[in-house]
Amino acid sequence: MDVAAELLISVFLVISGIFGFVGSYGLVKLKNTVQRLHAPTKATTLGVGGVLLASIIFFYVDTGHVSVHELLISLFLFLTAPITANFIAKAYLARNTPQDELPPSDRDFGWSIYDDPPDGEADR
Length: 124
Prior knowledge:
Shape: elongated
Helix content: over 70%
Largest sheet: none
């Protein structure tokens, strides 16, 4: 294998390790769920993306073909991580936001996360 390819693969792996470490450290040290959510979704996604890039380069240099598996994993990772983060953030806000802090709803039934409609809206 070419020395330049080995160096490039090593750089991607080291950068990936740094991102993974920062994401893991942030997950442990940050205080609440929303802060903890940011560290692993951003940093760890970049860390796994770097490992996948290193793998793509390795197999391209070794076999001469671009591996489709890593490309599919990357696509799946970059599509699902933000969606998962959005769902977790919405669940956190729904559990930790009191009903009186929400803006008024223009619907007949109020906000879906509360069982009882606000006072005065039960008779509509």
